[in-house]
Amino acid sequence: MIELVLIGAGTGHPDHLTLQGVRALQEADLVLIPRKGAGKEDLAHLRHAMLARHRPDGAVVEVDLPRRDPSLPYLDGVEAWHDAIAAAWAQAVDLPRGGRVAMLVWGDPSLYDSSLRIAARLDWRPRVIPGITAIQALCAAHAIPLNALGGEVRITTGRQLREGGWPPDCDRAVVMLDGGCAFATLPPEGLHIWWGAYLGMPQERLDHGPLTEAAPRIDTTRTAARAAHGWIMDCYLLARIA
User: Fold this and answer.
1) Averaged pLDDT score across all residues of the chain
2) Mind listing the pLDDT tens digit for each residue in 73-102?
3) pLDDT class for 219, splitting at 50, 70, 90?
4) Which phi and psi angles does 176 have, rounded to 5°?
5) Contacts 24+ apart (CB under 8 A), 43-51
6) Does the structure show a pLDDT above 80 at 37?
7) What SS3 string covers the chain?
């Protein structure tokens, strides 16, 4: 039996890895490093930097991740994509007598990450080491609380925001997986935004303010950053300010 240990690695700062995560890395027989293709090498390099600091010796295997087929309906495409990733994982792991395989997961495996769903396709036993989420890193970077006093927070995606608009009965919403500034589709009056990209990394970018003022700045910054680095990961908190 292979045990797959999914270790929350935070959002890019090497110190985000917890002591529990360090121990799990050091106890693993093999560490899988996913590679997402040209232009996104930074994501693999950051994982290698964590290994160099916390596990300089030991077996490491890189695995090229397949791409999602954009011609398929979104959910069908994701299911087929996850099948292909599971097959790539299995092909990369050569432990005929079983053992412990570790993988560093961006943020935390519980939040908008599919590693657990992919692992369920394999006859492996999963274990999760929690990590710092992008939401935590965003609030820390702006030195703000996530929720208003006694208030609720909705966690959603750019796709949901773009297709459904502002969530009903909601004063605060965290938006993740937004590939195209979905906040720009909202009526901006009364909304405040706290935005962050490359959270925890040297190239971190932050902005905040009334949405009417901040939206154009964020759009410009985001476009330039993506062109410079070849990829971007960002999220933001939106709040109705009375």
Assistant:
1) 93
2) 988 999 999 999 999 999 999 888 889 999
3) very high
4) -125, 170
5) 43/106, 43/231, 46/12, 46/14, 46/201, 47/9, 47/104, 49/14, 50/9, 50/14, 50/17, 50/25, 50/104, 51/25
6) no
7) CEEEEEEECECCCHHHCCHHHHHHHHHCCEEEEEECCCCCHHHHHHHHHHHHHHCCCCEEEEEECCCCCCCCCHHHHHHHHHHHHHHHHHHHCCCCCCEEEEEEECECCCCCCCHHHHHCCCCEEEEEECCCCHHHHHHHHHCCCCCCCCCCCEEEEHHHHHHHCCCCCCCEEEEECCCCCHHHHCCCCCEEEEEEECCCCCCCEEEEEEHHHHHHHHHHHHHHHHHHHCCCCEEEEEEECC
User: How would you class 99 by CB atoms within 10 Å of its CB: exposed for 0-12, middle for 13-18, buried for 19 or more?
Assistant: middle
Q: Max alpha carbon distance in the chain (Å)?
A: 61
**Are residues 103 and 5 in contact, defined by beta-carbon separation less than 8 angstroms?**
yes
- Asked if residues 143 and 161 have their Cβ atoms less than 8 Å apart, the reply is no
Assess contact for 205 and 198: CB atoms under 8 A: yes
* Amino acid at position 66, single letter: P
**pLDDT bracket for residue 43 (50, 70, 90):** confident
* Exposure string over 137-147, b if 16+ CB within 10 A, otherwise e: bbbebbeeebe
pLDDT at position 70 over 80:
yes
Positive/negative CA dihedral, 134, 138, 144, 148:
negative
